[in-house]
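Kindly inspect what follows.
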Amino acid sequence: MQEQLSSKVRALFDYPPYWAECYGRAPFLPMSRHEMDELGWDSCDIIVVTGDAYVDSPSFGMAIVGRLLESHGFRVGIISQPDWHNKDPFQALGRPNLFFGVTAGNMDSMINRYTADRKVRSDDAYSPDNIGGKRPDRSSIVYAQRCREAYADAPVVIGGIEASLRRIAHYDYWQDKVRRSILADSKADLLVYGNGERAIVDIAHGLASGRSIDSLRDIRGTAYMISDIPTGWTVIDSSNVDKPGRIEKHSNPYEMLPENEQPACESNGTDSTATNADANDGAVPLKFMSKQERAAIRRGDRDRTVLRLPSFDVVKNNKVLYAHANRVLHLETNPGNARALVQNQGGQKLWVNPPPIPLSTEEMDYVFDQPFARVPHPGYNNAKIPAYDMIRFSVNIMRGCFGGCTFCSITEHEGRVIQNRSEDSIIREIEDMRDNVPGFTGVVSDLGGPTANMYRIACKSKEIEANCRLPSCVYPGICSNLNTDHSSLIKLYKRARELPGVKKVLIASGLRYDLAVESPEYVEELVTHHVGGYLKIAPEHTERGPLDKMMKPGIGAYDEFKALFEKFSKKAGKEQYLIPYFIAAHPGTTDEDMMNLALWLKRNGFRADQVQNFYPSPMASATTMYYTGKNPLKRVRNNSESVSVAKSSQQRALHKAFLRYHDSNNWPMLREALKRMGRVDLIGNGKHQLIPSYQPKSDGSYHSARRKNSTPVRKQMKKGTLLSQHTGLPPRET
């Protein structure tokens, strides 16, 4: 029987240690039997299988999970990037006493291996010497199956960002179809989603105490397969909570009506009935519920309520209901009010518990204060691991993001509640990095996280925060309940840059500039002391159509930040520049939108060196728009708002070409497009025209200013060359 879920949780550091703590802490978690022998281990309690090279750093998921479990007295081994073609590499450390923990790594394996145009990458930043091909497609599925082949009786738990973003039926861009939950395909026993510290510690101690893996059903942030709905639960069809119905205009992207006031469903033979097509699993239509049951829903009695999503068989054939299911999933992501979800996967049912309770500052400190070596495992013989080189001298100060950008996976994985480390813990890590990491020259390359300036920013009211169901605190405008005080961050920056041996503290994480302008003092501190010549920010577009589908602020917010940036740069006597990022072919973007963006770039003297087309990552709201052509930020039905989507390779190439209007290789395509759009006036040699009417002789290649010569960055910026677009690695995630 399903146990009661509670929001009251045990602190991560408040567990009795497992007996193996007597072995002490390993310099590195072992990756071979020889290392186990040197540590005096006859076996591992837990074995983590990962698609990344093992770097013992808090920026790598396997290290955070491994060191945390080690602190609880468990012996943890690492199998990194195993050959997946047979089971032998998965037997290298023997059978784990408790379970296999499987992760694809810090990135979804498909995004890691393929470009936005579905081309195979030759490199892999998370592999030694940047060599690609060291992990299989859909690594979590393959690794879990090999673990099962290696030791059929060993429990298998999958987690990490790949498992998080594929936890329910989801659109897969690479196969261009809807796939089942990754849990159903992997045949694992449990799926851990989100930042998994709480769940993985509960699982480890539960199994160590003698519980079976099938009995671990009361852990938030986990999903598992069931045959029948457990007794004692009220099952509500998701269409009763967020009915597919007539679209109304709202001031916010999600409508916040009490559930007893939802508009009646307008049946068109598809919307209201299709959700029950897989039925007969206990879901009760709202009109047939008792008064007590309806009252329980209105009261917010959610701990014993489960929402039944449209089944896999339904959503794979019905785009309206796919968009509806995605919308409901995002409505149920606030740990303070989220309910359990259930979805039929074609036989068995997937049960998804509510999200984990965010870590407190003390718990965040406990996680990040573990004795990380902060270098790759010595078995790699000093091979270059680009992802490590990027974060080698950076410090993660927080988690989560309340921005809610529809194309981004941070909120879906880490949540929108900001989880902060203490100032003292952050300073200790900088000092440890200064004193012990080889090659430190005094420059901290980043002091941030998913978003640079959300440290200690939160809702003014815990009660409001726990009940809020909006996906963003800053769209369509900054919420009046959001405390935008940057003073804690300013204080941290000042203390960090004044440390002995620290010459410079740079901020390289994404900056939420619409939030930053609320604190000119913060912008001044940032611009005066923490910018290394140029600062990257992400307006993403200039036109309202695509920006609304991204849930991003208008370009006016960029202009406001730019004015402050230039004002304080001048005051500091520094020559510094902004580099704006833009996305091509995002859902909601028309050819005209891209043309207008290109004109804005030319007026402002920006020339993009490298650009990025929209990449439909699993479970993102923008991916739902891409697949369905519907807008899940509002209620969806067959005749509701259609979203323009650039799907063909020709249109995606055109949108990319507009961003690189200065590349003569793109001019023939752009001329044809401008003629088709009735904008021949933009073809010519005038100052306000986009591209010339002539075509220079060319060998078909294009070289940016950066590649032609070694012109310093500042001179390139003065010439109007925008250095790069979306070329950095994804945010670090557990």
